[in-house]
Amino acid sequence: MIEIKELTKSFGPKEVLDGVSLSISEGQVFGLVGINGAGKSTLLRLISGVYKPDNGCVLIDGENVFDNPQAKSKLFFLPDEPFYGHKITPRNIINEYKVFYDLDEKKYFEIVNSFKLPLDKSMFNFSKGMKRQVFIALAISIKPKYLLLDEAFDGLDPLARMYAKNYLLELTQNGSTVIISSHSLRELSDICNSYGLIDNKKVGFSYIDGQITTYHKYQTAFAKEPKEEDFKFEYLKYNQTKRIVEFLSYSDIDKFTKEISPYNPLIIDEINVDFEERFVLEVKDGDLK
After folding, report:
1. Which of 86, 105, 242, 246 sits a CA distance of 20 to 30 A from 140?
2. Does 76 reside within a domain?
3. Residue 161 counted as domain residue
4. Contact at 8 Å (CB) between 134 and 126?
């Protein structure tokens, strides 16, 4: 288990994280979401022991990770832009990593071949997506107990993204825990068990596993353009475009129909709740109030 306790980190006068606490259980895929500059990379570097926290601590299986080789040996951190030499190719890069890790070469080449990458061409001329594919293959073939990926799918085409997610899920089935940071929640919606949203130096924690609150979204239309203050029932979110009004509500269709009927809507139509909208609501209902 990864335990983060009252973590703070600043760079000079800029405070990036302030009192972050959360636990990440084993065998899951955890999505770390936030806008660019929110502190995702900083938090991953703190979890991996690259950075020393100003206050608080990160525990890997009960051991403080900073300046602790034994704890660090259980994890692998893949940054957004990993270092590689000018003459490095997908074939020979494994020689550098084999010095430090018990790397599964068969698995590595299986993944690289599935990505259809040229084995003997210099990675210096690869696109960002191709480079990401090589390093994802390395990370998975190392089979760490804890795998930390910073913007793992950035630059990957849809097919490569699908392959990468399948390999990551296979890794978790063998007991590994995967943490993936991204600025796009939708990019993680089909792989993660739970999520943390970095906002205003804090991390809100939410499960999206069928045990969350049920939200409903309705599109309504009226003969005359209404005003928001006209509606006296409770709802979570209101969005209006002239005579068309969208409501986000806890109410199911029967209850909502009773609530809206006194206002004589011409149309009541239930529509899908956007995944990101749903997640943000969950976090607001939880840790980030």
Report:
1. 86
2. yes
3. yes
4. yes
Domain that holds residue 7: 2-207
Domains: count for the chain = 2
Give the domain-ending residue among 207, 235, 258.
Answer: 207
Q: Are residues 233 and 159 in the same domain?
A: no
Q: Secondary structure of 217-284 in the HEC alphabet?
A: EEEEECCCCCCHHHCCCCCCEEEEECCEEEEEECCCHHHHHHHHHHHCCCEEEEECCCHHHHHHHHHH
pLDDT tens over the chain, length 289 residues: 999 999 999 999 998 999 888 888 888 899 988 877 888 999 999 999 999 999 999 999 999 999 999 999 999 999 988 888 778 999 999 998 888 888 999 999 999 999 999 999 999 889 989 999 999 999 999 999 999 999 888 888 889 889 999 999 999 988 899 999 988 777 787 888 888 888 778 887 655 544 445 789 999 999 999 999 999 999 988 999 999 999 999 899 999 999 999 999 999 999 987 666 766 666 565 544 3
Residue 108 near residue 141, CB atoms below 8 Å: yes
Same domain flag for 158 and 35: yes
Q: What is the pTM of this model?
A: 0.75
**Residue at 58 is within a domain:** yes
The partner residues of 66 in beta bridges, in order of sequence, read: none
